[in-house]
Structures are given as C-alpha cells and as structure tokens.
Design goal:
This protein is α/β, with parallel strands linked by helices. It contains eight helices and nine strands.
C-alpha cells in the first residue's frame, strides 16, 4: 500500500473511532474540528459519520445507552443549542411511530374466500404517502443542513487540518438590518457594507447569560448588559449605531458569572 493511501486509511480509522464521542459532545474542540474536517475531505466518510449518528439515536430510543452516554446524549439532542439535533431526534421518533410503520410495512392480510377485503381509497393512500415523503424529505434537509454547518465551520481550511489563522468571508444583513454572527472557534473577519443595527449569536448553553463587547474604530468601547438567550441565541442592539464607525472588533464574553472569557472574536470590516 502506498504511503498516501495508508495515511488516508489511518485518518479514516482515527475519525471513525471518535464519531460516537463527537456526537455526544465528549471531544475537545481540536479533536472535534479534526473529525469534522476528515468527514469533509475523505470520500465516503461523511456517510459513515451519518450512519454512526443514526445508530446512536436508535440506541437512545431503544433505551440501550449506558447512563453516562444517555446523559450526554440528552444534553446534546434534547437540551443542547443546536436545533438540528432536536429536529433529527423528533424525526426519528416520528418514523418509529406505529402509524408511519404501518404505512412503511403494511401487514399482509390474507383475503377471505367468502368476502372481498375493502380497498383503501386513493385519498387515504395519497395522504399516507405524503406523510412518509414529508418525513424523509425533512430528514434529508436536516442531515444536509447539519453537514453544511460543519463544512461552514471549516471553510477555507486546508487538508492538513484546522488552522488558527483568521478567516475572512462576506457577511449579510437580515431584513431588519441585524447581523447573525457565524460559528467561529477563533478569529473571523467579516466584510459588511454598513454597521448592523443588531447582533445575534447562537449560544452553547441556553441556561447561561452572555455579554457582547464592541470596540469601534472611533475608539468607543460598548459592553452589553448580561444577555439572556431566547430561542438558543442572544441578541443585542448597540446604542447610537450611526456614531460607531467600522471596523468593529466584536467579542463574545461569558458565561456571566464565570469570568470574562472570550468565546469568539469577530472583526467587522466595511
């Protein structure tokens, strides 16, 4: 076996051995990034990763997880910040429901020689087929969105693994003039035509409070009050936005009560 092929095989085995702990949130940041990068770059590995997650969800629904893994699973898929996890669990529960299973695997009824079995109306059949189609379409969208989110976290990073250098990407405003800050494990440079009216950031723990700090080019520093998450995100509208010229340095601080640790740093350029 050539050296490059052997290296890819070793990377695959290394990542596969960590899939379970990846989904349970038991890997540190560097290991989690390496697993996600491997899934994005090694052909076929993302499918294996998805299968590992499906197996984990099935084991939870069958009450086959040990207590420590069951606790970790619920922290990620029931109480975690990622809505995709909750949607994926709900979809799996829906697929396992008796009503859907009856449509997917209808019972074979032996016809009686004395009377004909009633035939399902076309409306009933169409409705059942629509339910199944919606469920599987939703599962596909959730899976695709989850993987796209993973790729977005590491866009611009090379095959050698995650780098600590700043990334740069364009940013867009919402219809109300707000800016949703993307996920970032280090510094992230964003380009924007004008200062945003508000900032939103998805939190890792919706039960804690956080602060946002803005260092503007004019020398002004604005620190928000403690922000309570709503729908797994914090939102802050800085006062006198028109007086805060870009570029901005935006720092996410928290959780409140655990010191002023910087969780993320964004540079917002015009």
């Amino acid at each position: 076996m050539s050296q490059p092929l052997e290296d890819d095989l070793n990377k695959r085995r290394w990542a596969e051995a960590r899939f379970r702990r990846f989904f349970l949130g038991q890997l540190d940041l560097d290991e989690a990034e390496r697993v996600a990068v491997a899934a994005a770059l090694i052909p076929g590995l993302s499918l294996d990763m998805g299968a590992a997650e499906e197996e984990l969800i099935e084991q939870y629904l069958d009450h086959r997880l040990p207590p420590d893994e069951n606790t970790a699973f619920e922290a990620q898929y029931l109480n975690g910040w990622d809505p995709d996890n909750r949607a994926k669990l709900r979809m799996r529960q829906a697929v396992r429901s008796p009503q859907v299973q009856q449509v997917l695997h209808p019972a074979k009824i032996r016809p009686s020689p004395l009377r004909r079995q009633p035939i399902l109306g076309w409306r009933t059949v169409a409705l059942a087929a629509s339910i199944v189609a919606v469920i599987f379409a939703t599962l596909y969208v959730v899976d695709s969105h989850r993987f796209d989110s993973l790729l977005a976290m590491f866009r611009g990073r090379g095959a050698s693994g995650p780098q600590k250098s700043n990334l740069e990407q364009p940013a867009g405003l919402t219809a109300s003039g707000g800016l949703i800050l993307p996920a970032a494990s280090g510094g992230l440079n964003l380009r924007l035509g004008k200062a945003p009216q508000s900032l939103a950031w998805i939190v890792p723990d919706y039960q804690r409070q956080y602060r946002l700090r803005i260092d503007a080019a004019s020398g002004q520093e604005i620190v928000s009050e403690p922000l309570t998450p709503k729908d797994n995100a914090i939102e802050y509208s800085p006062p006198n936005v028109s007086a805060l010229a870009l570029p901005w340095d935006i720092f996410v601080l928290g959780p409140v009560g655990a010191g002023q640790k910087i969780l993320a740093h964004y540079t917002l350029n015009p």
